[in-house]
Amino acid sequence: MSEKIATREAYGKALVELGASNDKIVVLDADLAGATMTKFFKAAYPDRFFDCGIAECNMMDVAAGLSTMGLIPFCSTFAMFGAGRAYEQIRNSIAYPRFNVKICCSHAGVSVGEDGGSHQSIEDIGLMRMIPGMTVIVPADGNEARKATFALAQMEGPAYLRTARLASPVFEQDYPFEIGKANVLREGKDAAVFACGLMVSETLEAAELLAAEGIHISVINVHTIKPIDAACVTKYAQKCGNVVTVEEHSVIGGLGDAVADVLMGKVNCKFRKIGINDCFGQSGKAKDVLREYGLTADQIAAKIKETL
């Protein structure tokens, strides 16, 4: 994992590829094309790009309308303003009638860094996961963000894609992407560690640190939080007996709860959630903020050891 690219950038460039092969793709943004990286699509297909201004709620309603004309709208803004500010419109105008709209939000999690707690959405996965019929995807690297963007265009119905501001490692291993199917990136018998987004690369690094101490963990990339791969979660929980989830999101409502919902009453295992513990983010360099919240490889490794 040497090359680094932000999943938001990979998403933006994937849209251009997608637009070339599918003229039904339209892109909407809320005055943040330079940050969400929809600027690439805007430059390539200006007639299919709509800047709705700082009016996220209106943007979702416009997208809902466009979808009724057979178009496939991709809406982008920061996660705080998409999943947060426009929640009612996503729920009632997009999800309730099951319109084919893709809500693709960047700048999620505390790795947003300097923008601080007001902009660091740590609730978005939970908010979107609770909406009936909403597919929720959190890609782990640039390649996965590209594949997820193409997969969303192929699927019918509303979906939420979460991307990050911070550039993160691109995996050398090129594995298939299928909505609802987790990818096992490393095998180990001592613990099953389920991670998503930026935390996948941190967990893989934690696995290396633990292996040096004779502790071998399975690392499972759960890119689709909903529908979750229940079969994979159950299999590895039973195999390892110790389960840990790692996410750059509140421990309430996100990946940890999704995994717990699968296992509750079915698998007898030790269980721990690593994430943001019921508090807001704060301003600082992305790497410093991740360390403040215990989300770096060495800290994850230490918490896994504690659990064991």
From TrEMBL:
Any keyword Aminoacyl-tRNA synthetase? no
- What cofactors are annotated for this protein? thiamine diphosphate
Entry keywords, A to Z = Thiamine pyrophosphate
Pfam families, alphabetized: Transket_pyr, Transketolase_C
Tell me which InterPro entries the record gives.
PDH/Transketolase (IPR051157), THDP-binding (IPR029061), Transketo_C/PFOR_II (IPR009014), Transketolase-like_Pyr-bd (IPR005475), Transketolase_C (IPR033248)
> What family, per the record?
Belongs to the transketolase family.
Q: What is this protein called?
A: Transketolase
Q: Which organism is it from?
A: Vescimonas coprocola
